[in-house]
Amino acid sequence: MVDDNASVRMFMKAKLAPFNFEVDFAETGEEAVGLTGTREYTCVFLDVVLPGIDGYQVCKLIKANKHAMKKTAVVMLTSRSSPFDKLRGSLAGCDEYLTKPLDEDRLLEVIAQFLPSSRKKRDKSGSKQQ
């Protein structure tokens, strides 16, 4: 979970807790790139507006790592909701684009979509949901 806002990080911590995921938190793009370069993640929730490098650049850097690209889903989680912002997210390689305020049902759908068990099913069927 990458967001410079402590309230958003705590909200996401609460939403992810029932799944018993191991969750790391980063406040800056540079911190996120460092973490994803040293650990393997199933999913990265990523804000766009961050101190230092922005979320689009972080997404590109994560997706540039060939090992992470196959295994790591990047979900943009941002207040930027214009079609242009969503296009930028898509061009950066994000797998999903969620906007704040967050629809909790949609968040749960996205979490379920990227659980390791559902990713295996998608990989076997050869389809990738965007």
UniProtKB/TrEMBL annotation:
The record's annotation in Pfam families points to: Response_reg
Q: Give the record's GO biological process terms.
A: phosphorelay signal transduction system
4-aspartylphosphate sites (modified residues): D47
Does the UniProt entry include the keyword Phosphoprotein?
A: yes
Check the record and name the PROSITE patterns matching this protein: RESPONSE_REGULATORY
Query: Domain of life, per the record?
Result: Bacteria
Q: Which InterPro entries match?
A: Bact_response_regulator, CheY-like_superfamily, Sig_transdc_resp-reg_receiver
Q: Which residues form the Response regulatory domain?
A: 1-115
| Keyword set includes Phosphoprotein | yes
The protein's UniProt keywords, in alphabetical order, are: Phosphoprotein, Two-component regulatory system
Task: Report the PANTHER family cross-referenced here.
Answer: PROTEIN PILG, STRESS RESPONSE REGULATOR PROTEIN 1
Name-wise, this protein is Response regulator
